[in-house]
Design a protein that fits this description.
rod-shaped, 85% helix, single chain
């Protein structure tokens, strides 16, 4: 019984870490595209 609980906790922890990794990659890509857009537009945003 305790082995199943331990296995479940490890599975949930692994899933949580995987979710954090995916969220980090998505955040990085969003920020990358945002800054690439700002650089490409340069100072012409207000024109």
């Amino acid at each position: 019984m305790n082995d199943d609980g331990d296995r479940q906790q490890r599975f949930e922890r692994a899933r949580r870490m995987r979710n954090y990794a995916i969220a980090g990659v998505l955040l990085f890509l969003v920020l990358l595209f945002f800054f690439m857009t700002i650089v490409r537009l340069g100072g012409h945003v207000a024109d």
